[in-house]
Amino acid sequence: MWNETLFEQKKKSLEGFGILSKKSIARFVENIKVLDEWQLHRINPIRFAKQNDFEIGETLDLFLHSAKIGFLDFAYNMICPACGGVAASHTSLDQIEEKSFHCYICNIDVPATLDDQVEVSFSVNPSLKKQFLNPLANVEAYLRYHISANFRKSKELLNFIFSNIQDLIVMEPGETKQIRLDAINVPAYQFSSVENNSAVFLYFDSKEVTKDRIVELSLLSTGFTPVELHLSPGEYEVKVSNRTIATSGFLIIKPNLKKILEIIREHPTVIEPFLTAKMLLNNQTFRELFRVQQLNSQLNLNVKSLTILFTDLRGSTEMYDKAGDILAYRLVQEHFRLLAETVKSSMALS
């Protein structure tokens, strides 16, 4: 349920921005309001623009002004290019501390480049509408919740993925689950907790016979421990303990990355255009609305390419002398206003 009173207040706040059309605001908020729970989960503004017949530039203005007044929130999602999984989600660029991140679904390292691996998505602020999605309801909901909707996998790939997922295990805080594994003819099992971006890999390739057939694993706030075991083939009882303070889930998977890559080559995943962190930083409206954001001086951000424009007013010193400080200052401000308008109109979505 929407908080109707607050909804109307936020709408009026948006109407207070002279740059935004009132007709567009009315259409925008109503289009947001009719979205279902899944559509409200990590909204892609570029997709929203296409589906609702908005210009992309106007759409970004609406989304960013909505974020400024607390109607919407936005997040920086670290996206695995192989599976589309959200390895981590941040509310500030300051939280992107490493130059790369690890996807524990695919077991690969991914450079944290702002150009393509950091997705910017929007969601409705919980004060207006709380989310009631249950990612732990079943395997399909679990994957849908934690994998970006901008990655549209082929039916062939989805069928193979689901056929290799044995189960979704849900654990309450402090709970221990006992799982029986038949690893006589299975080379490996993978336990992946997507929301914790962590996994355990059990390889049944040891030539020495494993005497103890009970394997104990712990899910901590930092992830699974241990992260890898080499055992002899056979049947095992695996005890997994949730030592976090939250209800958590994990998938039991028979990993086969080689086959997955073969299917992707034959049936490529379609990646829908989405707003990247680089696009956001290049957006003039974002710079104007969120210019006061303080970034850590030690912050290292990876960008493949970036255009920087330097400008200068010829004879500006003489202009101050001849025209006076007030008029000269106004002319300088007009120069930057025209420059900002030019940048905005160029739609630098790259």
From TrEMBL:
Domain called Guanylate cyclase: residue spans: 33-288
UniProt xrefs under SUPFAM superfamilies: Nucleotide cyclase
Domain of life where this protein originates: Bacteria
Pfam families found in the cross-reference section: DUF5939 (PF19363)
InterPro entries, sorted: GUC-dom-containing_N, Nucleotide_cyclase
This protein's name: Guanylate cyclase domain-containing protein
Species name: Leptospira weilii str. Ecochallenge
